[in-house]
User: Fold these one by one.
Assistant:
Number 1:
Amino acid sequence: MLRNNKLGEHGFTLLEVMFCICLLSTLLLVTPRLQPLFFGLPKQESFNEFEWIIFMQQAQMEYREAGTVQFIDKKLMMKDPSGFLVTYTLAGTQLIRKVNGSGNEILLQNVKTVFYKQSANKLVIHIQDLDGNIHKGILTRLSVLEEA
């Protein structure tokens, strides 16, 4: 691979350098994809408080925009004035969000039970995680303030 020039200089050819860079790039590109094979995927075995906070913020926005709210079994259905139907469904241990019956966005993981209770301008959500801890969130509407 090393060549001797007439002047006595040693070095790699451009082709050899390009081949080494290509091989190194391919190796670096493939390495992150192989990580789960060697180390496994991280598993979340407990309820994540950060997911709960994000869920409550998203649910708050959708509840405020909803024209009608209904409960059927463990399914919360909110329909906004433009006709979009947003449903929150407990499937196994995951709380899933669907819009107009399509999509499958996982909102919360490691959920054992979910319970909804609605009063005048608020919706109370009770969630029990797999460890038995109960998380309670309250969603409010601003319609009383808007009418004044």
Note: DSSP finds three helices and eight strands in the chain.
Number 2:
Amino acid sequence: MNKEKNTERAKEIFGAYADKDTVYFTSDGQAFLSDSDCRNHAKNLVDKQTMSLERIDVMPSTDSEDDETDLDEKEEGLTEAQIEAQKKEDRQKLEALYAEVIGEEANPDKSDTVLKTAITKKQNADKAKASADADKA
């Protein structure tokens, strides 16, 4: 499989499908938005190998820009104390989600983007494992 070519195609696909975080490829270069569709197609190929690419691995991060935009929208009409309280509450929610998904306490020195990336990677790995387990059954 040509990872470089698939990476370029994944960038195009992620650009067109903002709600998708994973693209799946078969050995013949076909791209799929569904793991099951990809695996079903691979069953008909001589080389049944598949690969997946994650948005966070191939696209530049825009989390900080999005966070700033969201915060600007929230900030209108709020006092500095309210803004700081909202930031603190948002961070606490993120750390709680991190602890739930990752299974350990979040390092307070890590940025929100780092925590979000770790959460997304773990959730995607869990999905892939569940899918592989289901295929074995």
Note: Confidence is low (pLDDT under 50) at residues 63-67.
